[in-house]
Amino acid sequence: SGEAEYLEATRAFRKMISEHKDRNTTCSRIQGVIDAGVVPFFVEFLGRDGNTELQLEAAWVLTNIASGTSDHTRAVIEAGALPILVRLLQSSPDIGVRGQVLWALGNIAADDAPAARAQALDAGAMGPVLHHLAESSNNRETRENAAWALKNLCRKCADFEAVRAALPVLGTCLLANMAQHDLHRARREWRERRTPLTTAQE
């Protein structure tokens, strides 16, 4: 069927970009994908709510494209990805899709150009990112992706009001991490006290 072919092609593009660890090769391949004119198709696939597998692959390849240069990130933004990514983060029932969207938003916001972060904030990314970071039912990977996205949304942001909402969540996360650290330390000290001293065998 058509969607099966779309899925196969999108996955092939994603793998082609990510299979090389060399930065220059990766960026060259990203540029090739952009020059092929397929980025708008990936954005369109994000809207296929009846096909979460295709949505996941589309979000994944856009994540990889946004990991390139500022021009590459801008290509993702100009294709209209941001509002659809935010909508998916708010409404997708699939935790894998939402986790990949968080990673995509994190890569977009990580761009050196402040405009990319500003556009992500203007698209309404902050609220759903905070929700996924604070939601205890999410798995660890999803929360880590949310933390990555939040860190980049707040990075070098000149508009304090745009990131004000993040402060309570960041404070809660900091306290939780400190409590977890204290718990690990207490358990380690308890184990050390319980460990019997060894003696030489007679």
Describe this structure as you would to a colleague.
- This protein is mainly α and 202 residues long.
- It has helices at residues 2-18, 23-35, 39-46, 52-65, 70-78, 81-91, 95-109, 114-122, 126-134, 140-154, 160-163, 166-194.
- The chain is globular, with a radius of gyration of 21 Å.
- The termini are far apart.
- The model is unreliable at 196-202 (pLDDT under 50).
What's this, in brief?
76% of the residues lie in helices and 0% in strands. The protein is mainly α.
Q: How large is the count of helical segments? A: 12
Number of E-type strands: 0
Spans of 5+ residues with little confidence (pLDDT < 50)? 196-202
User: What letter string, H or E per element, gives the SSE order?
Assistant: HHHHHHHHHHHH
- What form results from the Cα inertia axes? globular
Largest sheet: none
Structural class: mainly alpha
Mean pLDDT equals: 84
Strand content: under 5%
Helix percentage? over 70%
Distance between the termini: 77 Å
Using the CA coordinates, give the radius of gyration: 21 Å
